[in-house]
Amino acid sequence: MNQKIIDIKNVTKVYKIGNIKVNALNGINLEINRGEFLSIMGPSGSGKSTLMNILGCLDTPTSGSYLLEDVNVAGLNDNQLAEIRNKKVGFVFQTFNLLSRTNITGNVELPLIYSKGKRSKSRKDLISKVIDSVGLAEWVRHRPNELSGGQRQRVAIARALVNDPAIILADEPTGNLDSRTGEEIMAIFQNFNRQGKTILFVTHEIDLAKHAGRIIYLKDGIITGEEIIKDPINAQKRLEDMPKLEDKINSMEANALL
Amino acid sequence: MKRIFENIRIAFKSLALNKLRSFLTMLGIIIGVGSVVAVMSIGASAEASITENIQSMGTNVLTITPGREQVSIGGREASVESPGSIQVRVGEDSEQRRGLMSGFGEEEDEEIVAGELYLKDVKALKEETSVLDEVVPLLSSMSGFSYMSWSGNVSVTATTEDYLNFAGYELEKGNFFTVDDVSNSSNVVVLGYGVLTDYFGKNDPIGETVKIDGKNFKVMGILKSVGYTFGMSPDNSIYIPITTAQNKLYGIDTVNQIMVKVKSEDAMDAATAEAKAILRSQHHILPGESSDFEISSSAQLLEMAGTITDIMVILLSSIAAISLLVGGIGIMNIMFVSVTERTREIGIRKAIGAKNRDILVQFLTESIVLSLSGGIIGIGLASLITGVLSTFTSLSSLITASPVIMALSFSTIIGLVFGIFPAMRAARLNPIDSLRHE
After folding, report:
1. Number of domains in chain A
2. Is residue A11 part of a domain?
3. pTM of the model
4. Which residue among B2, B17, B353 sits closest to A114, beta carbon to beta carbon?
5. Contact flag B432-A91 (C-beta cutoff 8 Å)
6. Which residues lie across from A89 on neighbouring strands?
7. Which CATH number belongs to the domain containing residue A174 in this structure?
8. Residue A119 has what pLDDT?
9. Structural domain containing residue A170
């Protein structure tokens, strides 16, 4: 199997708003290998979201080629793109984007509903296994609005993983979370990456970007630089060093008593 | 297959989230389907009961009524028998006959004061016939009726002693009037069972004196209850000798109607021809002239009754169909609202791999489920309506299969037709924009 999961060459994207043409991407070249943990950094307006939409097959490039596992995605129609999104891409959004009226199992099951073949028995096993792997086994019957932000993002990660995609695309996955919960999410990503998952995430915080093995810097629709992180931040270790919120409250209580 | 159940489950879930809204949307379909099914069932059972009554009278009965036989097509007057022709009636007709004819709307503008029927016609028919079995004259009207302090209006049927046997009625008590009562114009009366219960309660009416249009009559018999005929109950009629009615009550010498039983059903045509010939010679009608009476058979009555109920059913069903249409528009409206509300959900589903077709089917299923549930509830409503009606009227509460199947397929089609545009709009949404939708 080819080591290259993603191979983008000279990809441009032009939006037309009325008569004005907006060049969101001006010739992007990017290769991503299997098992990589990659972050994309850039200020807002740099074309991060556009690049993510194209990588995630929600959008097609205006020109250039995009090979996802050796399939040229650039020329596919809506239905074929939907199938690729279903099978090869797992999305994790900043705002979670869970179905609020469906319980956790239902949310995680969603990608399976739109893919053919899986028997309901093995489907059930798969769902509970994936929910287990993000540590939400006790919450399966709950709805998203009964969960904390961190828990919701874990549901989203479970949903992204359930169809065993080629790549997980996370768009500012910790943007709506506090730093400790964000670190927990990064730990989960790193854990899955160690198990061989290819993960790409977008952030504008260098501290978070350094959890990845490679950082791509994006500005004005072109890649301005690339940095290999030799010793990425280990989120798990960091969590152990971070004081837990409850410990802090406990110690403050102790101080107050004194 | 599993997909379909999945979609139905999702549809029920999302409809359950807006219970009141879903119910109000369904209401149009509920009312539409309910009225279609109820109307068709009532129509069918009304027709069945009319048919049954006409047939119970016998399929070998001819009814002769006065009036010029004619068909008015382009103003031409046809003088030959035509089974569907409508006659002009002169004078008081029988209530039953009037009930049937009034819905027909084809009565002639020009009132032709033509022939009348007389007792001597009855006599001629009886004497000169070879195939006619029983001949009975009728003179019917509504008259004031009183017993002691109770009074009201009842339907008076004046006839001969042969009527009891002719109509197949049985006596509950006492006797029917005799040939002597008819020839003597006796003031005697036989009561229908309903009149007995209405006016006498537990009293024994035999031998009592009642007043009809102010004249004293002696009660000599009670008929057994027979139920309804043409929506009217003979139970609520009273029966007096025809001569008494002519001479003492109304002061006329004509009759409304002559009813004839033919010896066998095969001889109906021959009997019609014979009765016609006898009456034509009786009335001195020249060849080429049209008759001044009309002869119709029970088969014709059946056909007429069928036509009337058919017209009623078509009329009422088309009103109900309009309400179904309105209901369908309501569904379309609410589905558009639903698509807008759930744009983000659609975006999520699409991002995760739902194809346009998946979204289309999801929303289409929802509108069909909405409309079909309305249909099923509507059928429930219809059975309730017919059930209630059947306890207060003589109509049977039978809901027949065909309107139910029709209603179910109609509501499915409505869900499909009015759901397709909202579903298409949902399916075409762009996933990126939908995900940004608040």
Report:
1. 1
2. no
3. 0.70
4. B353
5. no
6. A167
7. 3.40.50.300
8. 65
9. 35-61+77-253
